[in-house]
Amino acid sequence: MNEYADAAQGGLAPDTLETVLRDIGASRYHNRHPLHRMMTSGSLSKEQLQAWALNRYCYQAVIPRKDAMILARAEDPAFRAEWRKRIEDHDGSDGWNGGIARWLKLATGLGLAPELVVSERGALPATRFAVGAYLSFCTNRSLLEAVASSLTELFSPMIISERVPAMLAKYDYVTEDILEYFRPRPAQASRDADFALSYVVRHADTPERQQAVIDALVFKCDVLWAMLDALEQAYGDHGHIPPGAFDPKRSP
Q: 55 near 127, Cβ under 8 Å?
C-alpha cells in the first residue's frame, strides 16, 4: 500500500511538502534495499558486482536523454540554463568524458568487456522495463512531475557516502580509480537537488499538484528499488538468470 497516496489532501504548506518529500526518501530510497546492504557489508561476489554495474549502466545512459526531454519542454530560459548542466555532467563535452564514461570505467574495471556494457544487450529485462518507464514518465507527464521525479538526488550523497568507503574497504580489487564516477557526484547531486526542490515547492501550489509531485518521487524510488529487486532475483544465491541476460559463467 502506498502510504503517501493521500498525503496532500487538503493542501500542504511548502515546508510540510518538503518534509513529506524527504520522508519518502527516508522510507523508500534504495539504500534500504537488502542488495545495497549486502554490497556495503562486503558480501557480494565479483560477479554480482559486475551484474550491478552492467545493469546500472542502462540507467546512467538514459539520464541525459530524460533530461533532454525535460529541457525541450521548459519555456523558461533560466530553467533551461540550469537544467542543461545535468546533461553536460553525464555526456561531458564530447559524449565520452562525463559521467557515463566514468561509469563505463567502473564496469570495465570490474572486468566487463566495454562492448558488452555499452550495447546493454546483457541487461536484465526488468532493468530495461524500469529504465524505459522512467524515460516515458519524464516524456509524457507534466514538467512539474518530471522535475519532481529527479528528487531522488536529495538522497544520492547519502548512498554514495555508504557505498564508496565500503567498496574500497571490503573488495580488494576495487580502487579509487575505478570509482572515479562517484567523486564529483555528491556536489553535482546536491546542486541539482536544491534547484529541483525549490522549483517543485514553488510550483506545486495546489493540493492536486502537490500530490502529483509526491507520487512522482514515489514512482522514481520504485524504479530504483525494482532494479535492485531484479538483480537480487537473477543473481542471488538461488537466482534465475533470464535468457539472454549477462551470465558470469558464459560472458567474457
A: yes
DSSP at 180: G
Contacts of 169 (CB under 8 A, 6+ apart): 42
**Phi and psi at residue 245, to the nearest 5°:** -80, 160
pLDDT tens digit sequence for 7-22: 999 999 999 999 999 9
Q: What is the CATH number of domain 20-235?
A: 1.20.910.10
Instruction: Say if CB 138 and CB 146 are below 8 A apart.
Output: yes
The per-residue pLDDT for range 158-200, each reduced to its tens digit, is 999 999 999 999 999 999 999 999 999 999 999 999 999 999 9
Q: Is the pTM of this model over 0.90?
A: yes
Beta strands in the chain (DSSP E): none
Contacts of 94 (CB under 8 A, 6+ apart): none
Q: How far is CA 62 from CA 95, 100, 126, in A?
A: 13, 9, 15
Residue 250: band (very low, low, confident or very high) from pLDDT cuts 50, 70, 90: confident
Domain boundaries, the chain: 20-235
Q: How far apart are CA 131 and CA 137, in angstroms?
A: 10
The 10 Å CB-count burial string (b at 16+, else e) for 94-103 is eeeebbbbbb
